[in-house]
Design a protein that fits this description.
Elements lengths: L8 H4 L57 E3 L10 E4 L7 E7 L7 H12 L3 E4 L11 H12 L2 H16 L4 E10 L1 H12 L5 E5 L7 H4 L6 E6 L7 H14 L3 E6 L14 H23 L1
Parallel strand pairs: 3-4, 3-5, 5-6, 6-7, 7-8
Antiparallel strand pairs: 1-2, 2-4
Amino acid sequence: MNRNLCLPVTALIAATSLTLGACTGPSDEAADAELPAPTAAAEPRVPLAPTGPDEMPPAILGNGGELLGADVGYLDGDRETMGYLAVPEGQGPFPALIIIHEWSGLVDRVRQVADDFAAEGYVTLAADLYKGRVGGSSEESMALMQEAMASMPAVVANLNAATAYLKARPDVSGRVGAMGWCFGGGVALSFGLDGEDHDATAIFYGRLVDDPAVLAGMDHEVYGTFARLDSGPSVEQVEGFEAALRSAGIENDLHIYDEVNHGFWLRVDADPGLRSEAGLHVWQRLKAYLDRTLR
């Protein structure tokens, strides 16, 4: 049924385009130094402040504050790739989460979301798949995305390194999840299928798979949030994905939200009157999913 797939590594190499919403932000330059060993000491910390039952993360609402985390290198020998690490206050151990940016790259909105997850009690690493670059236009973002998709084994290796970095920290429990939006949602699915051991995969409107034989390689429950007014993926593609997960025996929590379109959850503030009710339900589902898979 699905004609617009997010396949694992071998098939993603040939993919060339997505219908995505863009955001822009400044790029970061990596320090010219060897990677330090992961440490829980002498780092900036994010105060624990979990959202209440009727609250969403501030960054999703456009109210993200001053960044409380820090840029960090997590790829040995790579001085250009710098992720953003947000660590909760306290000794832990905490579950960990890797968040994967949209097609435009690791921008400050994504860093602010990392801070919000740290406030919920997750050591959160926002991965960098573009070596510090961000797209300032649709054309630039498309070029960066296509470059990454043409070297998907390196993308999966990047996320494997992020997982290893987190698991090596003394304040991480050992349980790690991955989530992403749009381009990052498709990457999260491919990482769930082809990456090294981790415990959760959350997809926000990314490319999908409708082959049960491929999805049978997934060893944990899958979360997915999609929009009925979206074409990438379409409702039919989401239904094909759900049917394939069911056929493969993979537990899942997928939901298609009416009256909203692509990109609605990362930017609820773009149309709060339309997106707030769906956005809160998304967050309640996501919190419950991460609780049962990572805690």
